[in-house]
Every structure is written in structure tokens, then in C-alpha cells.
Amino acid sequence: MTSRLIFRDEHIEIRVPTELEAPLHFEAIQASVKEISAWESWCDTGYSLEDSRTYLIESYVKRQRGLEYRFCLFDVASGKIIGSIALNRIVQEYKTANIGYWIRSDFTGRSLAVTAVQAISRFAFQELGLTRLEIVALAKNQRSRRVAEKSGAFDEGCHRNRLYYQGTPEDAWVYSLIPGDLPQKLV
Fold first, then answer.
1. What is the number of other CB atoms lying within 10 angstroms of the CB of residue 139?
2. Phi first, then psi: what are they for 151, rounded to 5°?
3. φ and ψ at 53, to 5 degrees?
4. More confident residue, 40 or 179
């Protein structure tokens, strides 16, 4: 059984959300739809409460099957969902996975994504036995690239046509993390 809580301090908690928290998830996305949709094709103005509910149900099923591990960042003071981080594209044969993340617009600039990347990396290495994680960010997504760099990830360069975004192949920067890359303490 894997941990449902992967980080907690006096400000944030990073844990598996439940289906009952769909309204909180939906509200966080609505508060950030403009910023998230600039980089994520699943997010647009038509995103609904039912989409959040479906996402959380699918998260449970995928976690049970070991296909994906999705967590949300919760603000301890308000209880709001303030972001999300996930391990996806897990390949057990090679002990690899991708990391994806977003932070609610009114909570950016606080190194929350950096903390989340480091927390999910520890979870991946220690609990899942993975040995390589990748962060793949669209070349134009400076903020996401900066998170990867601040997290201690190794810059492997810009890969041509690495992502397919809104019907178009796009260049993307690839960053990798292996167990020795993580700092002793979380940021």
C-alpha cells in the first residue's frame, strides 16, 4: 500500500484527494483556467464540476492499478486545493515515469511546485522503486522549466517535436531526476 500523504508542513499538505473534494478541485481550476489552459490542452473554459469528479474517480482507479499517482496540494489554513502533481506514463520495465504539475494562479511564486516535485520524487523513488523521472515542459513555458531547474532536475536539452499540443507538434525541454539529485531536505 502506498502513502496517501506525501508532504505536510504548517502551510501545505500534499495528498490524494477524494471524489468528495471534486468541488474544491473544480474551484481551483476555475480560478486558474486562463493560466493552466495556456499549457494544458485538457483545461479550457468548458471544464466542469463533472470533469473534476470524473478526474478524481479515474485517479483512484489508476492508482489502484499502479498506472498513475495523482496528488493535490491543499492550503492548510483554508482547506483549498491550490495545485496538483502527478506521476504518469509509468513504465515499470524501465522504472521510469513523468511528473506533471500545476499551481493555482493566486498561489504561484511561493515555490509550492518545487516542494511538490521534490515530495513526489521521494515518493516515486522510495515507495515505488522508480529510478528515473522526467519533467517535459513546452519550450515556451518558462515557469514550468524554472520549477524543474529549482527542483534539482538535470537539463537534458530541448527536444524537437517532443510534445503534441493543441494539434501541433511542439518543442519541449526535458529534465530528469534520479535518486541522487534530490536535496536532503525539501525546499
1. 15
2. -80, -10
3. -60, -45
4. 179
Residue 180, C-alpha cell as written in the block: 541522487
Q: Three-state secondary structure along the chain?
A: CCCCEEEECCCEEEECCCHHHHHHHHHHHHCCHHHHHCCCCCCCCCCCHHHHHHHHHHHHHHHHHCCCEEEEEEECCCCCEEEEEEEEEEECCCCEEEEEEEECHHHCCCCHHHHHHHHHHHHHHHCCCCCEEEEEEECCCHHHHHHHHHCCCEEEEEEEEEEEECCEEEEEEEEEECHHHCCCCCC
pLDDT band with cut points at 50, 70 and 90 for residue 34: confident
In the prediction, which pLDDT does 184 show? 67
On whether the CB atoms of residues 149 and 175 are closer than 8 A, the answer is yes
The answer to whether the beta carbons of residues 148 and 133 sit under 8 Å apart is no
Q: What is the CA radius of gyration of the chain?
A: 16
Ordered by where they begin, the domains of the chain are: 5-181 (3.40.630.30)
Chain-centre distance for alpha carbon 58: 16
